[in-house]
Design brief:
- Two copies of one chain form a homodimer.
- Chain A starts with a strand and ends in a 29-residue tail after the last helix.
- Chain A has seven helices and nine strands; from the N terminus they run E-H-E-E-E-E-E-H-H-H-E-H-H-E-E-H.
- In chain A, helix 2 crosses helix 3 and helix 4 packs across helix 7.
- In chain A, strands 1, 2, 3, 4, 5 and 6 form a six-stranded antiparallel β-sheet that branches. In chain A, strands 7-9-8 form a three-stranded antiparallel β-sheet.
- Chain A is α+β, with helices and mostly antiparallel strands and 260 residues long.
- The interface between A and B is large, with 82 and 82 residues.
- Chain B binds a DNA duplex (30 and 30 nucleotides) through helix 6.
Chain lengths: 260, 260
DNA sequence: CGGTATATTGACTTGCCTCAACACGGGTGG
DNA sequence: CCACCCGTGTTGAGGCAAGTCAATATACCG
């Protein structure tokens, strides 16, 4: 219940900083001296939607979720964050747009914005790196909008599995088996579905031998091409044949203004 | 059908640049010398999802939409862009994540990334301004995710009306009446709905005297509080009374890690 | 003043949600 | 080592919001 803030001396974990590639050894040292480490237990809230808090936070281990709530309790999980991810980017003088909550035991690195700002003024690469991170974030969110707005339950779940298949794939490059670090309700809130719909869809994927799940939190991808076809909305569901259903509206499109 | 690229000399429109506040007169001049103007007719495509094109584009008039498509033609409109907006931010070496298409006659300002990069190296305020813009973009997209993932049709439409009520409100500060610059199918693709659902909801809002629409593209807000209540999901629909329906799942939440 | 594009409405269908029962698993104490 | 319990996940039955298909009305434009 109380807050466990560990002032960071050396134990700054050997996290992969997003700046690692652009900063020299000296700057890294300097940066690390500004860092304090925060320990989080599952369920801990780091920052709440609407509150103003000008720190820069980086995930060093564990898993966090960023969520927005409606007054009646419905929630949308905007993103999950794990090792090496920046918690959020928003204007410093502006309230947090989302609530950040720890899904399981996690560690954060915290830097006061002032300190980071001072360093960035001396090392313009930092701002450039941040800009690239922001760009990636935007691209990712745009991708997710298609999922939320236009995909069916099965397409959403397939997309989800593929999304969380990748990161852990780094170890075994074929990546057939991996762990889901979150529970069913969180998957549902991430995809704009209910827990039950997620379950049903997972069961169907099992039944159709596209994945196997030796236990609820463990996924084995058996037929990746099929999963990808589903995720990208390739309408292979034999349900509707050609022109009807989920209309493939084709628009007149006038010209293409070439590059240059 | 052919592309109309007007090499910009002086006629660079007196657009409000996002950098206006941070650059001195001299730098502005320099920036403007790098700009060329692109004219767009309704339906023109500026850049297509997946294609690589390293220019920096700024809307100087008109209205554009940024959309992503699924292979069967379903599309999600990720954002609309109008005067003063940057078209998109994404890593320069990376393919466009969305297709940008002109909704009606528009003008763009184009700067080659190389030129902008060079200027930004000399004027770090530029990168900082871009970072702020990116942050705003992220915050906006997060807000839209709630709309797409967790709101009902009526809540989506109400949110939409309020969103497009603001920008044009600058003129009359009470902003009761405004024009919708896009058509029904575009509203639908923006909200993850069908044209028909959008229509039906607008009709309902008219019937309940929350808005009036003297003609399809013109909206008069009659009861703003009611519209806001709907938009923010205040569940005033007398449909379900207390605990049931669209469950207000309440989670145990452990601690709040304070600022500092 | 027609004629076409767009918007609206209606009747019907369906995908996803709701409510509720049931299964599983892993920790605990008898 | 087994019986019980509680949290989580899964499955089933039924309802409703939003989608589909199709007809009609309205706006826009020459």
């Amino acid at each position: 219940m109380e807050l466990r803030v560990v002032q960071g001396r050396r134990p700054v974990p050997n996290t992969v900083w997003p700046f690692d590639s652009v900063l020299d050894r000296n700057c890294r040292r300097q940066l690390e001296s500004l860092v304090s480490v925060v320990d989080l237990a599952p369920g801990d809230v780091v920052a709440r939607e609407g509150e103003v808090n000008g720190d820069f936070l980086l995930v060093s281990s564990g898993l966090l979720k960023l969520a927005k709530r409606l007054p009646d309790g419905r929630q949308q999980i905007v993103a999950f964050r794990s090792v090496g991810d920046i918690l959020t980017l928003h204007r410093r003088d502006t309230p947090w747009p989302v609530t950040a909550q720890s899904v399981r035991a996690s560690k954060l690195c915290r830097i006061e914005w002032e300190g980071l700002r001072r360093m960035a003024d001396a090392n313009p690469e930092i701002d450039r790196a941040l800009l690239d991170l922001a760009a990636d974030e935007i691209t990712g969110l745009q991708e997710r909008m298609v999922t939320l707005g236009r995909k069916s339950t099965e397409e959403k779940v397939a997309s989800f599995l593929l999304e969380f298949c990748q990161p852990l794939a780094v170890q075994s490059n074929i990546c057939r088996e991996f762990a889901l670090p979150m529970r069913r309700p969180e998957i549902a809130d991430y995809l704009g579905l209910t827990t039950e719909s997620v379950c049903r869809e997972l069961s169907r994927l099992k039944r159709e031998k596209i994945v196997a799940m030796p236990r609820p939190s463990r996924v084995v991808v058996l037929n990746r091409p099929a999963l990808e076809a589903l995720a990208h909305g390739e309408t292979n569901r034999a349900t509707y044949s050609s022109g009807s259903g989920m209309q493939a509206r084709r628009e007149r499109e006038r010209a293409r203004v070439g590059p240059r």
